[in-house]
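Table S2 (continued). Query chain:
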Amino acid sequence: MLHVGLDLSRTRLDVHAMNEAGTPVLVTTAAPDAGGLASLVARVGEFGQPVAAAIESMTGARFVHDQLELRGWEVEVADAVKVKGLAPLAAKTDRIDAWVLAELSRRDLVPAIWLPDPAVRAERERARWRLHLVRHRTALKNRIHATLLTFGHPCPVADLFGVAGRQLLADLHLPEPWAGDVAAALALIDDLDEQINGCEAALRTFGANHPYVPLLTTVPGIGPVLGYTIAAEIGDIARFSTPKKLVGYTGLCPTVYQSGRKDHRHSLAKNGPKYLRWALIEAATHAARHPVYAERYQRTRARLGKQRGAKIARIDLARQLAEAIWHMLTTNQPFAPAGAAKPLAA
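Corresponding output:
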């Protein structure tokens, strides 16, 4: 068998192929498009051996993975952070990175990540596109608020972009070009509102037929849109053998540095999808007011004080929600508080 390391950049793919003994048989580059990858497969195919390849996780890596697997290669996508931990380098070049990946493949040490199938990728894209639009809308709203403060107009209404707020903005006499900027931002916000509403309607429609979403909406703080986002980011719940595995995947656990009797806990690990972390924190913000979790949230918040209490209490609730979600999805049962005999009414 040949073991091939692939290092991807914007314009090329560095390739290092070695045999089972670790002897290089081909060191080259290829274009990271369909034609270039087909040519690479043909060149490596001249050796007449099966191929196992490894490529670091990054934008474009999954395209390379899919194209090569369609042509008969076995390709693993490696966790870039773990690769650096396994093979720290004094000098780093694309060729060296490709060699490292080939060597890890030869030694069966590739820290491979789970790749969602095309259906799960499509679900994630739907949910993430909505979040992308929401962030753009928020940025525009913040810019309008900043413009008002710049010219001494604090916002006297609860919603600057509701009926009363729009009238207030219409009555302001801002100098140019700020007046034109505000008008353009409002037009963009209206367009984004329409796009976001369409996205949310689609998520509700797709979520109604999703095996996880109806269960997730029984959890305090999770509605159809948030439930679809969480379901898409989790993927197949069967790949998590315990609730702690799912919590670890969310990146909501602190980084641990332990040696001997010393055990230090630092900031959150933040591994796994950032969108899943955001969704669970968003759900925890709403769940903090629910009777099931309100007491725990307030107790944690009071214990840690005003400066850090609320933030850490939300993270604590997000971990609790992740554990509850694991139990629900693995048993196909709606949410029930710990120790409760009956499920919680939705």
